Amino acid sequence: MNPSRRAFIRRSAWLAAGTSLLSQDIFAAPKKGELTGIQLYSVRADMKADPLGTLKKLSAMGYKHVEHANYINRKFYGWSATEFKKILDDLGIKMPSGHTVMNASHWDASIKDFSKEWKYTVEDAAVMGQQFVISPSLEQTTRKSLSELKAFMEIFNKSGELCNKHGMKFGYHNHDFEFSESLEGKTLYDIILTETDPKLVMQQLDIGNMINGGAKALDIMKKYPGRFESMHVKDEIKATEGREPFESTILGVGIIPVKEVIDLGRKWGTKHFIIEQESYQGKTPIDCASEDLAIMKKWGY
């Protein structure tokens, strides 16, 4: 074989390899039914100062899905459900999920029914076209004993039934205490997943929060395969201030094996991948949102 022929073959091989990598990386696309979005708590200061302007910036970056963290007196960031939906629709954005804490006051044991406030929460989520109504925490009063927590998990299941009537699912989002606190030898998270019906209550796994409770996402996922319909995609580094040992950071630069976690989630049925970053190490939240989305796209999400 002459030198020019060998050189041509080498170049062809390099080109083929590069094309393969590009197809797996830059040109990779989410699977059917999957979505990548951002939890608006990531840009909470921006949303407080200029919610419409912030949403326009997120849309211009390429975000097509957001998750709310502000629902007060039947308003999302100051707008009614109908108004907020129109704003998002005009920007080409959907809101498939949102965070509103369900607490003990939302259930009236005397009549065995939900309060009008919680019913409004579900109704307004349906107007927004949400798939999931997610409670992102548990009050201490509901987790003082195993019997009290089990009873509250039954209310979770009932909330799932209520959401189902509106074509949605109720959900729970973890922080760190679910893994560091135990009742009668079981972590709160084990109790939550054991006592809730997966058909009624979905789980949104925050893969970063749990590290402050001593847990690792891959371990939890392997213990409960297929239970996580949604994830908060987050990375963590050692905190420079505050009481917690770790804080969130740009995806891929911390200690969480983020891509391995979300790839396993994809394999086991996770459909919603929601970016969340709460600490910024000197960068602006909006710039972090842009960087995080670019990384997710590079990874094929």
Tell me the layout of helices and strands.
Layout: H1 3-24, E1 35-39, H2 44-49, H3 51-61, E2 65-68, E3 71-72, E4 75-76, H4 81-90, E5 94-99, E6 107-108, E7 113-114, H5 116-128, E8 132-135, H6 146-165, E9 169-173, H7 177-180, E10 182-183, E11 186-187, H8 188-195, E12 201-206, H9 217-223, E13 228-233, E14 235-238, E15 246-249, H10 258-267, E16 272-275, H11 285-298
Parallel strand pairs: 1-2, 1-16, 2-5, 5-8, 8-9, 9-12, 12-13, 13-16
Antiparallel strand pairs: 3-4, 6-7, 10-11, 14-15
Helix pairs in contact: 3-11, 4-5, 6-8
Plain-language structure description:
The protein is of the alpha/beta class. The protein has two domains: 1-29; 31-298, Divalent-metal-dependent TIM barrel enzymes (TIM Barrel, Alpha-Beta Barrel). Helices cover 42% and strands 20% of the residues. The strands form five sheets. The chain has an eight-stranded parallel beta barrel with strand order 1-2-5-8-9-12-13-16, surrounded by five helices. The protein starts with a helix and ends with a helix. Residues 3-27 have low confidence and may be disordered.
Number of domains: 2
- How much of the residues is beta strand, in percent? 15-25%
Question: From the coordinates shown, what is the CATH architecture of the largest domain?
Answer: Alpha-Beta Barrel
Largest sheet, strands/sense/barrel:
8 strands, parallel, barrel
> What is the N-to-C order of secondary-structure elements (H for helix, E for strand)?
HEHHEEEHEEEHEHEHEEHEHEEEHEH
CATH superfamily of the largest domain: Divalent-metal-dependent TIM barrel enzymes
CATH topology of the largest domain: TIM Barrel
Head-to-tail CA distance between termini: 44 Å
Which segments are poorly predicted (pLDDT under 50) over 5 or more consecutive residues?
3-27
Backbone structural class: alpha/beta
Helix content: 40-55%
- What Rg do the Cα atoms give? 21 Å
Order of strands side by side in the largest beta sheet? Answer: 1-2-5-8-9-12-13-16
> pLDDT average, as an integer?
92
Outline type: globular
Which CATH first-tier class of the largest domain would you pick? Alpha Beta
